[in-house]
Design brief:
Blueprint (H helix, E strand, L loop, with lengths): L5 H9 L27 H13 L2 H7 L1 E4 L15 E4 L14 H15 L12 E4 L17 H7 L2 H16 L5 E2 L23 H16 L15 E5 L13 E2 L3 H8 L3 H6 L4 E4 L3 E2 L2 E2 L4 H11 L5 E3 L17 H6 L4 E2 L4 H13 L5 H17 L19 H14 L1 E5 L10 E5 L6 H5 L22 H10 L4 E5 L10 E7 L21 H11 L4 E6 L7 H5 L3 E4 L8 H7 L71 E4 L2 E2 L4 E4 L3 E6 L8 E6 L4 E7 L6 H5 L3 E10 L5 E5 L2 E4 L11 E6 H6 L12 E6 L2 E11 L12
Amino acid sequence: MSGLTLPLLLAATNALPAQAETRGVADPAKWPQARSAGLIDDRTEAKITALLAKLSLEEKVGQMIQADTSAIQPEDLVKYPLGSILAGGSSPPIDAPDRSPAGPWIATVHAFNQIAMQKRPGHVPIPIMFGIDAVHGNNNVVGATLFPHNIALGAANDPDLIRRIGDATAKEITAAGIDWAFAPTLAVAQNDRWGRTYESYSEDPSLVAAYAGRMIEGLQGKPGTGSIQTGNVSASAKHFLGDGGTTNGIDQGDTDIPEGQLIAIHAAGYPPAINAGTHTIMASFNSWQGVKMHGNKSLLTDVLKKRMGFDGFIVGDWNGHAQIPGCTATDCPASFNAGLDMAMAPDSWKGLFDNTVKQVRAGVIPMARIDDAVRRILRVKFKAGLFNPARPFEQRSDMIGSPEHRALAREAVRKSLVLLKNDGVLPVKAAANILIAGSAGNDIGQQSGGWTLSWQGDGNTNADFPNAQSIFSGIAEAMKSSGGSATFSADGSYATRPDLAIVVFGEKPYAEGSGDIRSLEFEPGDKKALALLKKFKAAGIPVVSVFLSGRPMWVNPELNQSDAFVAAWLPGSEGGGIADVLVGDAEGQPRQDFTGRLSFSWPRTAAQFLLNRGQPGYDPLFPFGYGLSYAKPGKVGSLDEVPGIDGTPINKSRYYIDGHVQKPFTLQIDPAITRTAVDSAMRQEGAMQLGWRSAANGKATIDGEDIDLGFETNAEMMLQMVYRVDRPASGPVTLTMGWGTINATDLFRSAGGWKTVRIPLKCFAQRGGGDMAHVHPAWSLSATGPLTVSIANVELTTQAPGGFCPPRN
């Protein structure tokens, strides 16, 4: 790994003038200079000037607001001429499931553009810009190539690989009719408890800087040359700024560090991204020294646009403007005045449009600020080729999941694997008979992680990945080709004793918010993977661990029980890349060697959250840059198995699972209600049957301390309940979360089999529970008997199909 080390970077900033006295206000003179390449030319600027002169105020404001597909229809654009549409992590195309191939996505973009480009009186046609979170390939589209997440790519230490991945991703995005990728993430994650650590290339700013411009070039093409017609898309460097440095690694928290550190560590990727011509930059949710980025004029305008010479436009994150003091999701002139050019207002777009128009007319937002924002947006649309109707890459289904792109992703997997331990069992002799164990071994969704077909990467099955290969499938293919065999058993059972076991285990998929953790201990309190490893060791079977994770984790007990241990990160759709390195030839000679090296330091204890090269007291188990190989082996001795911190996770989303109330919650039932253990559809005595006596009023409540569900509510999460009506309700039934109560009578009117209902948290907020930061109780069901209902599951779920908000009384 090359480039300036963190101490040298910090030393350079220490030579700068003293920090500004006002907290959260940047001094532009301290910041590096850059210059947008390929965005401004006289001919394009003349076109923009002529177009601006034709636009009404409403059309200008419309360009500055972006709505989500889940909350807008194409015909809405007749009255509200918005400039951009996005499809959030779990948002569907029009009239199709959220997990859809390219066809429905193309149709969706066409439907919005048909209205936007319609010739009608009083309307100036301007194409829609359609954005999607393509953070490791075109990951929202079924069949797309899924590249390893950024943490894995950092371990590859190969900038040209990054450029090629960007180019392949852009081709697959354009083939689905989309023109804007919310990528790359340039966060420099410093606290590995952060749930977005896997979106960071490295803890080292020099590696992030080396990758930033190359990924922009891959997505957009060389500055001024790429467009939708050449199979390129607009990039969005994100999140500006400091999202990887929040206190305690709390997502959307406060990055309370000196300005010099903000520059040296967290801004490192932005000058190369700007110099490479990035079309857009996304503002971050976090604060710096207590000031929210969406409202920080000194950073958005004075530093980014002026000092760094950024000529594209700044887009907000999901209702991020609403977090500015004094703002709401539908009312925030402060964010536009601070320098935000386009607000991501997924479900708040209509109110924000109306209020912003009024605020411009009242002089609260100067017209010069509006014209500057719209000029920047139109500049990007012209440069991206959106005003040119030609779409030569649309319908190129051969591009999506193409053999060439899958081969590239497989190469990336090979280069990203880091060998942490090998006591002579790797490479696997291809003529052997081996067992693949652990449920993750044949789970493409788990090996791909978050931001995969859904926001949190959950709810997927292998059938959702038609062009992909699981880790087991890749290993079995390699073994068979040389006369060996591989069998899969999730629980590790076998009929014939294997020569060796490869156990694949790791973190379940997650994204921001729910991905934040309390400690770095893997599986605290319930070490299922460790039990499986011990089972093989007790039987004298050599064990190779393949660990899937979005961050370095404390796995000392698992390392001790493994003869070899591979950090495979989140490899994506090409599980065969793991077989390329683990499986040798028939004689056991390597076919490929390990070349991956840690781009994040590996913890010695579960309490080493802040473990970054160059920091005082740096004492990792495996340092930055570590990685064994067949050519250069090494030994790992017996490791201490004391974690150093209580890793028990704080639960605020799982209330009743498999027949048990989840800690720290408790169940209270009124005397009028009986409770009996019954079987669920999945498990013996996995549900509770609640019975209301005739004509009796009663309430069943799952409760604990106040829980803060503000983030979950804004993130469109839902209360999911799996239940069965055994005796229909004869009177009213209500369901309560916090202060919000809904009429749930219709859900309990008819008896039948097991059902799943999902109710958006916003539904409870709208029914009197507006303060979702203090939810108490977590869940309560009230009724007048007779009623008998069995409850199998009560928990929060991420955006998913079937969300239902019952009508008001």
